[in-house]
From TrEMBL:
GO terms for biological process: proteolysis. Keywords: Signal. It comes from Frigoriglobus tundricola. Residues 292-328 have a biased composition (Basic and acidic residues). GO terms for molecular function: serine-type endopeptidase activity. The keyword Signal applies. Pfam families: Trypsin_2. SUPFAM superfamilies: Trypsin-like serine proteases. Gene3D superfamilies: Trypsin-like serine proteases. InterPro entries: Peptidase_S1_PA, Peptidase_S1_PA_chymotrypsin, Peptidase_S1C. This is Serine protease. Residues 1-22 form the signal peptide. Residues 271-337 are annotated as: Disordered.
Length: 353
């Protein structure tokens, strides 16, 4: 089965003082259990989690548990999902409490597909989050684009329990929102804030960047912007400083009440160049597809010391020679990577009715 790193933040850490208003939390708000005194944190073995996730997806695919590829394609039509999300709490939380309240509601979503010989290969993976207890999850629409023939999906929680994707409920390509169902019950939904997060306000994000699972980053909202896509449709974005990367697509951005205020979706790479008209590179943080495991082994170098070949020894350069000195101004042209998210009200629009 092919191995893939996957699809959304390092931080400008903005601290805040948790306050405790007299109003009780609203129904549906996540319960925040206190951290056990002196408890050791959960250590994540990334390689193990990756391998087990795709092994379980392969098993589900062989048993024909996920929604069939042709049925998934047929359901990829823009429409509201008709789900009523939980309401945010009224009590502000510390960053630690935000993480504890949300982490069990963040999933890995990924795919497998058959090759020409019928062997299951790793597809891609991203991040998803729970919006309804009966197995309804949310991620980016672009997670379900550019699919291979026969590609099917599943999702797994932080404990490694994997579930097949059984239905696609709605969303929108331009909004970059997708809502789907997995075969799970009794999940803890994340509340969704009804309004826009204020510019400068704190946000936290839990995602799976670059094969590193359940990374928690923090930052601030920087601005709101629009642009026209290739289909000449207007996209709306929320800028943040919280870090994310490949594998983070669909990650929930949370405010200090533990409510979703956005969803990681896009990065803009700003490079130094002499042409001001050159467009910035827009990248969806969906994990790329890797070569198959068999191909990886073909390219492995033989172990042990390689035999010496006469006249093939590397020449030792004089460190005082000019060509060994670093050239000033010849570093990376990249100046900045801007992180873009789907604003919360747009997420809410396509989740709801």
């Amino acid at each position: 089965m092919t191995r893939v790193p996957l699809l959304a933040l390092a931080v400008l850490a903005l601290g805040f003082v948790a306050t405790a208003p007299a109003d009780p939390p609203r129904p549906g708000a996540p319960a925040v259990a206190p951290a056990p005194a002196g408890a050791e944190p959960k250590y994540i073995n990334d390689d193990e989690m990756y391998e087990q996730f795709f092994d379980k997806l392969e098993e589900l695919a062989k048993e024909k548990k996920p929604l069939a590829h042709v049925d998934l394609i047929a359901k990829l039509q823009p429409r509201p999902a008709g789900v009523t999300p939980a309401k945010p709490a009224a009590k502000a939380l510390s960053p630690e409490e935000v993480y504890r309240a949300a982490v069990a509601s963040v999933f890995v979503v990924g795919s497998v597909h058959p090759d020409k010989d019928g062997n299951w290969q790793t597809g891609t993976y991203a991040t998803a989050w729970v919006v309804a207890a009966d197995g309804v999850l949310v991620t980016n629409w672009h997670v379900f684009e550019d699919l291979k023939n026969g590609e099917v999906f599943g999702a797994a929680d932080r404990n490694g329990t994997a579930y097949p994707l059984t239905d696609f409920l709605g969303g929108d390509k331009t909004a970059d929102v997708a809502v789907f169902r997995i075969a799970a019950k009794g999940l803890t939904p994340l509340p969704v804030a009804p309004g826009h997060a204020e510019i400068g306000s704190w946000v936290g994000l839990i995602s799976h960047p670059g094969d590193l699972f359940y990374v928690y980053t923090q930052g601030a909202v920087t601005r709101y912007s629009t642009n026209k896509n290739e289909d000449d449709k207007v996209e709306k974005w929320m800028g943040v400083t919280a870090e994310f990367a490949s594998g983070s697509s669909g990650s929930p951005l949370l405010n200090k009440y533990g409510a979703v205020v956005g969803m990681a979706a896009l990065t803009l790479s700003l490079d130094a160049n002499d042409d001001p008209k050159k467009p910035v590179r827009r990248t969806r943080p969906l994990a790329p597809r890797r070569p198959s495991r068999g191909d990886d082994k073909k390219n492995e170098k033989p172990k042990g010391k390689a035999p010496e070949v006469p006249g093939d020894k590397p020449k030792v350069k004089d460190p005082e020679k000019p060509d060994m000195k670093p050239e000033i101004g010849k570093g990376s042209p990249q100046q900045m990577v801007v992180k873009m998210a789907v604003p919360g009200p747009i997420v809410l629009k396509w989740i709801g009715k």
